[in-house]
Amino acid sequence: KQWYQRRVRGGHSVSDDLHTGYGSATLAWLARNSPQFLERYRCCGTIADYFVYVLCGLQESVISDHNAQSWGYFDEKSGNWDYGAVKTAGIVVRLPRILKSGNIVGSVEDENFVIAKGAQVFVPIGDLQASVYSVLGGKSGRVFNYGTASQIVMTTERSDLGSLPKSVRRALYTHDHNLITAASLNGGNSVEVVVKLFSSLSTETKLDYETLMEMAYDKKNTKLRVCPVFFGERHATKTFGSFSNVTHDNLTVGDISAAVFRGIVENLSDMMSGVDIKGDVLYAVGIAERPVLQYFVKEILGDFTLFEKEVTAAYG
């Protein structure tokens, strides 16, 4: 099951960052295991690319360099697919034409859409880039985001191409900036594990998320430590959660919950270790009503600006 994560042999330069769910990995798997499934299709792309394809009545599929990079087998220097690697992987479906983000691909063709007929349509940008842009706009900075999972993203100049630890990845952003992101698989889902755990231990007491956060805040100075990577990480697939500094009196709901919230932030901080972090403003998203997370973000990551507006990727 891990063959798609390895570098394709044959001398072609391909991305080391190829994982399950990436478009190229999926196409390569289908080509090897279900070639008949692909016979009915002549093109491919992301769901956003399909939407634009229909909206503009295009004759071919197009994809932004943002999404092409996240598909794998993308040559950043040429801005095109690494066709040697694509051929080696056995991909036979015609890949989308790659355009730089910010390019117009067409206009709305049908007057039955909510969008006005004739409105110009840009090539869809990546989800990550759209979400970051909704917070930073055209400014440089850092973003801490807490949701089902959690991330830290920072902008960096395109010319800054130093080596990065395996726990982070570089993504295209604007014409002169890239994004460096530590994208953890653990966040609110790890807290939900704790909620379910304690709820299962007592049929009389139903523990909700809000109560858990209040109890965690009361125990924010606990010595208990939890590494809450209950869902693993992309860069460390065999490492999972652990407890340390356990004493006879700190295995309470509050202590464990506080340690999990702390661990979520510490895990992201550890993932970013080795990255030269500039003194840009840190914006915190998704913690406006979570004082315990605000406490740990400030303690571990430093001062931040609380982003209280609803964050949307509609820019994409």
Tell me, what's the shape? elongated
User: How many strand segments?
Assistant: 14
Strand order of the largest sheet: 9-10-8-7-13-14
| Helix content bin | 25-40%
Structural class: alpha/beta
What amount of the residues lies in strands? 15-25%
The profile of the biggest β sheet is: 6 strands, mixed
Our count of helices gives 10
Low-confidence stretches: 1-16
Question: What does this molecule look like?
Answer:
This protein has a 6-stranded mixed beta sheet, with helices on both faces. A two-stranded parallel sheet has the order 1-4. It is 32% helix and 17% strand. It is built from 10 helices and 14 strands. The N terminus is likely disordered. Helix 7 runs antiparallel to helix 9, helix 8 packs across helix 9 and helix 9 packs across helix 10. With 316 residues, it is of the alpha/beta class.
Provide a compact summary of the structure.
With 316 residues, this protein is an alpha/beta fold. It contains ten helices and 14 strands.
